[in-house]
Design a protein that fits this description.
alpha/beta; Aspartate Aminotransferase, domain 1; 35% helix; binds 4'-deoxy-4'-aminopyridoxal-5'-phosphate
């Protein structure tokens, strides 16, 4: 048994991977591969429509919002958002590399106001009290709900005097979201939704300001809305995998159940990190992510880092090396991670501690 803790692309339910493989060979008994069928065929349109409907149901998306499946990675949305929404100034919360890159892209379109930043503290927490500092003349307020690299998360929908826009790439569909508070939500698929290659965008139609300047077609949300996510040839395979995964999620009990499981998994690991003498958590307690659990070796045991990676590898625990800018370890626990996976990691941490303290490794 292998447990894949990669931060993205990340593990998907086995049945989703198998059904994707099957569709690559023979899509719905048609004798053709999913990769070969016309994207405008009734069969693929049905895939797209069901995927949209499931996102609407699972996240309770109101009718005045559109659901798009676009490509270009989450980073493309860093540009699409200011292209479409920024006219004079936009407010951003700087909570990590991705948030910062989003700000950087926006800075080419107008004034970017940093509402708060935890950069000086190596992004180990989400700044407190930022909601009171959002300027009410800004065109929108943008935040990253889960900071994949640092393991911090804003697991609620903040109050904002201006339209709210969020990059939910690494915690979308892991909890209920009050969509009506947002003008736009976007997420790259390769964590909780599908394989890489598609972005989910949820946008309120009337939040888009009137088009008063040229927006390149592929960057214009209105063009994508009008074309029903088929402005260019859509990434059929990632969209199909998203559909399979959305069906799986629905059968499992939806986002409330995903939230419950995420809390359960995270508490097992954070409790162990707190108890274990070898490790300490990276993020401050009040900002800890339920998705990416980042920890490092306590200074006294720093030389044991590679030993621990080798130790867990022998137990089928894969990809827990932390991001290069943080070091240490990162256990990414997205929707598909079973509780047994985190229990296996917890056991490995305990056994490794025993060996180290007994001086045997
Ligand atoms: N935002 C967040 C929160 C991410 O975790 C990532 C990728 N890990 C990105 C944006 C960038 O995504 P992409 O590679 O799809 O552009």
């Amino acid at each position: 048994m292998k447990y894949n803790f990669n931060a993205g692309p990340s593990m998907l339910p086995r049945e989703v991977v198998e059904a994707t493989a099957q569709a690559c060979l023979d899509f719905n008994g048609s004798g053709l591969s999913l990769m070969e069928i016309p994207h405008r065929s009734p069969e693929f349109r049905a895939v797209l429509q069901e995927a949209r409907d499931l996102v609407r149901t699972l996240l309770d998306v109101p009718q005045d919002y559109e659901i798009l499946f676009l490509s270009g990675g989450a980073r493309m949305e860093f540009c699409r958002v200011p292209y479409n929404f920024l006219r004079r100034s936009a407010a951003y919360l700087d909570t990590g590399t991705w948030a910062f890159q989003a700000m950087h892209e926006a800075s080419h379109f107008g004034q970017v106001i940093t509402v708060a930043s935890s950069r000086q503290e190596h992004y180990t927490h989400i700044p407190k009290g930022f909601e009171q500092r959002i300027p009410d003349q800004a065109d929108y307020f943008h935040f990253t709900s889960n900071n994949t690299i640092y393991g911090t998360e804003l697991r609620y929908d903040p109050e904002s005097p201006v339209p709210l826009i969020s990059d939910m790439s690494s915690d979308i569909l892991s909890r209920p979201v009050e969509v009506s508070r947002y003008a736009c939500i976007y997420a790259g698929a390769q964590k909780n939704l599908s394989m890489a290659g598609v972005n989910l965008v949820i946008v309120r139609r009337d939040a888009l300001p009137p088009a008063d300047r040229y927006i390149p077609m592929m960057l214009d949300y209105r063009e994508h809305l009008a074309a029903g996510s088929m402005l260019n040839t859509p990434p059929v395979l990632p969209i199909y995998t998203a559909l399979l995964n959305l069906r799986w999620l629905y059968r499992q009990g939806g986002v409330e159940e995903m939230d419950r499981r995420a809390r359960e998994r995270a508490s097992v690991l954070y409790d162990e990190i707190g108890r274990n003498r070898l490790f300490r958590a990276v993020a401050r307690e009040d900002s800890r992510s339920l998705m990416n659990i980042c920890f490092v070796m306590d200074d006294e045991f720093a030389a044991r880092e590679q030993d621990f990676l080798d130790f867990v590898e022998q137990r089928g625990i894969r990809n827990i090396r932390g991001h290069r800018s943080v070091g240490g370890f990162r256990a990414s626990c997205y929707n598909a991670m079973p509780l047994e996976g985190v229990m296996a990691l917890q056991q490995a941490m305990r056994d490794f501690e025993k060996q180290v303290l007994a001086g045997r490794v």
